[in-house]
Design goal:
The protein is of the alpha+beta class. The chain folds into two domains: 59 residues, lambda repressor-like DNA-binding domains (434 Repressor (Amino-terminal Domain), Orthogonal Bundle); 105 residues, Jelly Rolls (Sandwich), CATH 2.60.120.10. 23% of the residues lie in helices and 30% in strands. The chain has five helices and eight strands. Strands 1, 2, 3, 4, 5, 6, 7 and 8 form an eight-stranded antiparallel sheet that branches. Strand 1 and strand 2 form a beta hairpin. The longest helix is centred in the first third of the chain and has 10 residues.
């Protein structure tokens, strides 16, 4: 993932400092991400991918460009690089970097193990569908209880966070939508 970001950055003839400044992160953090020395929050990866003008899903998956996105269940991987993030991600499609949607399953960490309390922001709109369990969606300062079958659509630029309500955790189908 970091190597993909580095390759795109170099092709666009931008320095690490230029991209870091545009993303509001340190050059050191960007260097560590590019060199695979650290994992990063989706919000940070989203800012970097937006600055480099590539979809987040393209950054997160390692598959070639195609106009057909078939991904058998047995080949999907769950990324859980950092226990402190409060969730793990499961990409649902190998997509073209030019696609405008990013279908993902967010696995929300059980309540006793979730240490994430800071909301996220990113540039994409977001549609969510609760597949399993229940969450509290914190959105723009308000709390919304959501359970299996509930849906929401919101602007990613406003602070939001999925919080578990119990130790069963939750699965949330999330579709990021680029403008």
């Amino acid at each position: 993932m970091g190597q993909k970001l580095k390759t795109v950055r170099l092709k666009s003839k931008h320095t690490q400092q230029q991209i870091a400044d545009q993303c509001g992160i340190s050059k050191s953090l960007l260097s560590k991400i590019e060199n695979g020395q650290t994992s990063s929050a989706v919000a940070t990866l989203s800012k970097i991918s937006e600055t480099l003008d590539v979809p987040l899903s393209w950054v997160l998956d390692g598959h070639p460009e195609t106009d057909l996105a078939v991904l058998p269940k047995a080949e999907r991987e769950i990324s859980a690089d950092d226990d402190n993030m409060g969730y793990s991600l499961e990409l649902l499609a190998n997509r073209s970097r030019f696609s405008r949607i990013e279908p993902t399953i967010v696995h929300v960490t059980p309540k006793d193990f979730n240490v994430r309390h800071e909301p996220y922001t990113h540039s994409q709109d977001e549609f969510i569908y609760i597949v399993e369990g229940a969450i509290e969606l914190y959105y723009d300062g308000e709390k919304h209880y959501m359970e299996k079958g509930d849906t929401a659509h919101f602007k990613g630029v406003k602070p939001h966070l999925f919080m578990p309500v119990d130790n069963a955790g939750a699965k949330v189908l999330t579709v990021f939508i680029d403008d």
